[in-house]
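User: Before I run my own analysis I want an independent prediction to cross-check against. Here's the chain; please return only the structure tokens and, at the end, one sentence I can use as a sanity check.
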Amino acid sequence: MKFRGLLFPISLAALLAVSGCSKDYLNVTSNELTSADEYFSSQSDAIALTNAVYVPLTGMYNGCMWQIGDVMADDTQKGGGGPNDGVELRQLEDFSFGSTNPLIMVLWTQCYQGIQRANVVIQKVPGIPDMDANIRDRCIGEATTLRAYYYFQLVRSFGDVPLFTDPITLSGSASISRSPASKVYEQIVKDLKAAAVLLPDTRYTAGDVGRLNKWAAKGLLASVYLTIHDKENAAKEAKDVIGSGLYSLNTNYKDNFDVLKENGPESLFEAQFKNNYENYSDYTGESKLDCFFAPRGALWDDNSSMTPSNGYGFNIPTPEVAALWEKNSGGGEDKRRFSTMWIPGDIIKSALPTAGPNKKYTQKPLEGSPNGFNISKYFIEFGYNNGQSTNWGWSSAQNVPILRYSEILLIAAEASGKADGIQYANQVRDRAGLAPLSLGLNDNDYLEAIYKERRLEFLGEMHRWWDLLRHPDENYFITQMQKQNVTPKKTNRFLPIPQSEIDKNSHLKQNDGY
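Assistant: Structure tokens:
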């Protein structure tokens, strides 16, 4: 489901834009919502409206998730063309950001855009006549799951946030206050439980591949429970997904990031990207990660381009994380490493049949990447299988994994405790070619082993910052960041509410420290 079918009637499109590229999620008036009733008259309208709830994911995973989840954490560094290339990203890296940082604004606005759209689906779809009951439930279940997902990103990033479960009007948006985080989490749990009942318990096929099902909702619920330290329920939900028998680890770790093998046996939830051959936008449905993460100035040895615009070299793995890769008992390396990051000396062979025998690239230290490290997960060779633009620009069709089966296993491993949980962690390690964890680990060492496993399994997948925050030691994110010669303040646990939102709404109070 690459959203290729998102062709709405023009009036419906105007409503669903909500913010568009202006990123002003509240740009919708009450009379627009009222006059739109006539457009919600058929099953196809319901499906189109539900599809639109997914769309903010593309802006998020281009425009803020890797910047906050990876670079703001200890997994990666900014990279790029030097200190002044991406100043707003450098501010996240060194914790000098304030309430006007545009990357933080993207997270806020895209999440609330998704929430507004989800609320419209949940309110309007039940009243559409002559719908197939299963499709009706599916649409409502998808919207409810996505609403929970967007609120999850907000509450764990900002703390207390405005909570509304009906479409909000422009006047209402100017007077709403922040709700306690505990209430937001209650709503998230409620939504995901309700969605799990509504959604199908099978995997989708054909044009519906990529939609959320029951197990995606339960997997997200497991992640939410783990975040709020409810290990009993986190373990239960994760084991329910495992027990479904519908998911398995890809034998080849790299298949999780192959543009031709998306939404595979390990995938519960992916941000769906397509190739529209658009240039230089976070919001047109294509992924920019290939271009942004590729080595800067990336050329084959015949001086042809490896990636569009020759690569930008952002999101560079830190020396600390590069040193964590283990050797197996035979002295070989972790099977995940080359498919996750490149290090000096790696040879990247062209996959193009016309490339010729000398078309290869040996990575070297480059501007913005002093150690020669680069994320390789999202690399698609220029011109390969129509996976990206044939011109310059940011137009990769490669999806971004949001929830994989390996995460379900590692949630079960962490939440169940060592005695019962180690079996799940060892499945992930076995796929990587590593020895099993020892039952002799004490509880603290076992937790750190799971954290290390998550760090390597999901490097470049935008999880690490929130893993740092949910650690039982509330100062863990500070001590870990100090290893990168950066010392956050305790108040950096939460991001600032965007100043432009506070300027519109005097009822929004800023987080401490900003």
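Sanity check: The first strand starts at residue 76 and ends at 79.
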